[in-house]
Structures are given as C-alpha cells and as structure tokens.
Amino acid sequence: EVRLVESGGGLVQAGGSLRLSCAASGISFDYYAVAWFRQTPGKQREGVSCIGSSGGSTYYDDSVKGRFTVSSDLAKNTVYLQMNNLSPEDAAVYYCAADRDYGVGCRLDVYGREYWGKGTLVTVSS
Predict the structure, then answer these.
(1) pLDDT at position 103, please?
(2) Contact 45/92 with Cβ under 8 angstroms?
(3) pLDDT bracket for residue 97 (50, 70, 90)
(4) Residue of 11, 13, 32 lying closest to 117 (CA atoms)
C-alpha cells in the first residue's frame, strides 16, 4: 500500500519557522515528483512548492519564494518543506502529493496527482 504521511505542523508565532516532512512508503521519490499544497476553509487548494523526482528542479509559488525551501533526502524517502518567516497568511493544512514526472520536472497544479497525504495543520499566531 502506498502512503504519504506529512508531519511537522504545529503552532508558531509570526516570524517563526517550521519544517514539514513528507515520508513515503510503497513508492520511491527516485521516480516521483513531490508537490506541497495548502488549503484553508473556503479556499481552493493551492500549490506552494515542488521538487522533481530524484531531487530535481524545484519551484515555488511567488507567495513563498525566498521564505520556503523544498528539499529531499532520498535515502530516507522523505521530502521536506522548510518554512521561515511565517505569517498568519501561511496558516493552512499542508498536503504533499506525488506524481511520476519521468524526469521532466515538477509542477504546482493539483491535477493528476497519483497519491496524496492527509495533511498537517500549520497555525501562525500574530
């Protein structure tokens, strides 16, 4: 069975940092790109950042560029999202999703994702 499990969410003050993890079983991130999404009540899920299979090229939404960093540890089959200088606008449930990119690279849209995690909640106090 394929599982993606997010962890690392919690409550932080504005300006603080968190590191989210997306750990996979049943698939290898050698062959799957991973994207991070976030969603708040009443809003559509939006792409935050992604990393290509085997730790390939990375991309960021403009709203997080310069503050967030996506990386992977292929030996641990885990992708991370380092979030710095958090603001209340960043508060959301964060999800990771995987799809096969065949080495082409990752994307931030929500379509055609093969696997999704159940999310981890990030709360930012002001």
Answers:
(1) 87
(2) no
(3) very high
(4) 32
- Rounded Cα–Cα distance for residues 36 and 83 (Å): 12
Contacts of 32 (CB under 8 A, 6+ apart): 24, 53, 98, 99, 100, 101, 114, 115
67 has pLDDT over 90: yes
CB atoms within 10 A of CB 47: 19
What's the pLDDT tens digit per position in 22-58? 999 999 999 999 999 999 998 999 999 999 999 999 9
Determine the Cα–Cα distance for residues 38 and 46; give it in Å rounded to an integer.
Answer: 6
Integer-rounded Cα radius of gyration of the chain: 13
